[in-house]
Amino acid sequence: MINKLDKELNFHHQALSLRAARQELLSGNVANADTPHFKAKDIHFANVLQERLAQTSVAGNTGLSTTSPSHIGNQKLGLFGDNLLYRVPLQPSVDGNTVDMDSERTRFADNAIKYDASITFVSNEFRNIALAMQER
User: If residue 42 lies in a helix (H) or strand (E), which one and from where to where?
Assistant: First the structure.
């Protein structure tokens, strides 16, 4: 029972941390909409989440926390590792910027809604566990 709960909480922990990091990535794209030669970045959420879950299930924990890039165990640089993707613009800009504000706002809102839904789901799970413990 505890292993199942731990696995479920690990999934939500990884998903929420990736959603928050993706939100920062998308907001960075919006903030640089007028920066010449800025390349919009994003991730394929499902692939990155699957990779992170595979890493934690193999390691048995969430990984080492390091405070310096020279510490042992810091194999991948950045939160997304080599999963960072550059967006191909539908309509290229004259100054080389690949940020499309309409698509960025749509992705930002979609990610925010999914983040809120995940928080609500986790909150309901804890409420159900608390109710189950009270009924015994």
Answer: strand 41-42
